[in-house]
Every structure is written in structure tokens, then in C-alpha cells.
Amino acid sequence: MNKEKLEEMTPAQQLQWEQQHRPECSINHQGSVKSMERDAALELWGRSVERHNLRYRTMLSDGDSTAFNAVAAAQPYGPTRPITKLECTNHLPKRMGTALRKAAKDGRLGGRGEGRLTKEQCQRLQNYFRSAILNNLEDQRAIEQAIWATFFHVTSTDEDPHHDRCPAGPASWCFFQRARAEGQPPPPHAGHNGTALSRKVSHAVLPIYRRLTNPILLKRVAHGKTQNSNEHAQCHVGTLPQRSLCWERPGGSSHR
């Protein structure tokens, strides 16, 4: 029974349908999506020892996870066995992109002109941030160094270059380091540093980089895991017509 058909019924018909449907209804939660995630996590962690004789030591979640906060507060394995939170590797770069776009809007740093923080620049910086994580998995310090290398690269000028943190060698992504490895004078930044930021923009985004390179945050994403598979499955389930969904009740009987 879908929502439209229920709305066409009179209150008496709805009540009669609910009474007939209740014995075979499989609903096990009432409330918001966030509360459902929270309650499901509490149930999974709370029964893991009894059912499977194991403890879940980590939870992979997004930045603001009510599910993790609830499980951590519940201490399902006691106060001496805390649960560790892991961030989805895709989530932190998204936070970087969001923060950069907000800074561009609030500080009027976008628009045309050399060194401006445009939407395209924000996306490039977000991609650099993500690459720094994925190229240095399981090495928190290397991730931090790679992120700062990209920041100082895009804020460098001919008069004030800061490429010492960029990877060295002829295969480096940094034009300055490539020239140095080949024994050539560095070419001008104009035309070679495609994501160059002005001094005003650099000062505005520096606090964002400081905040998102916090060692605690980087430690949570160094594993390289994402929530993609879970979100992909949820996306497909959400597009299915209600009549095509099938579930199995305890005892083996299936219902549609």
C-alpha cells in the first residue's frame, strides 16, 4: 500500500487497513533517518559479543555522526575498550571544498582576475587535498606534508617561491622542482602555476588548511576507506518501486 492510496481512504478505511496489515508488517523503527542509524548502531554494537563473540573496535562514518556519538557514550564493551572513529576518506576533502567555497563567498574572493578563488580553483584545491591523502595511505605525517606542499605551491610567486615541500626529481608534478632536477632555471610562475592564489586569498584560506590538517583528523582518514559501497547500495534501494521490494521474515517466508 503506497502513500497515495492511503490518502484516498477515509479514516475508518485506514484504520481497518492498519489492523489487517499489522500482523504481517515488518517495520522495526519509527523516527527520523538519523535516529534509525543511531538505534541500528547501538543494536549492532550492543549484541556483537553475545551473538558473534567479537568486538567492533572502529566505526567508519562521516564528520558529524550521531551514531558514533551514541555508541561511544553507551560504552558497549566497558570504559576500558573505547570505540575508535574513522572518517570516510571522501568526507574530509569535501569539507575542504565546502570551506573554500564559503570563504570565497563570505570574503568576496571569487570572480575574475588573477589569483582569485573561483569555483574551479576550489574544486582543484579539493582534488589536490584528496590526492594527498590517497597517495600516502597509512602515513599520517606524509599526508600532512603533501597537503602543505600543495598549499605552498599554489601560493608561490617568482619573488617568493616556496617549493621546497614539493616532491623533487624530473618526474615531479611541480614545474619548479622539475626544472631544478634538470639543471634549468625555473620558468616564471605565470603560465605554469595554474592554481595560483593571490596573497589576500592565501591569508584567507590558511586557517582552513590549518584546521583540516589537524593530526586527529588526518589519522582518521589515513586508512583510505570510504562509505561509497554503502551509499551506492542505499541509492539503488531508494530508487526501487515499493512493489519490487522483497524481504524475508524469520521462519523463511518471503513477502512483497
From TrEMBL:
<dbReference type="InterPro" id="IPR049012">
    <property type="entry name" value="Mutator_transp_dom"/>
</dbReference>
<dbReference type="Pfam" id="PF20700">
    <property type="entry name" value="Mutator"/>
</dbReference>
<feature type="domain" description="Mutator-like transposase">
    <location>
        <begin position="20"/>
        <end position="174"/>
    </location>
</feature>
<feature type="region of interest" description="Disordered">
    <location>
        <begin position="1"/>
        <end position="20"/>
    </location>
</feature>
<protein>
    <recommendedName>
        <fullName>Mutator-like transposase domain-containing protein</fullName>
    </recommendedName>
</protein>
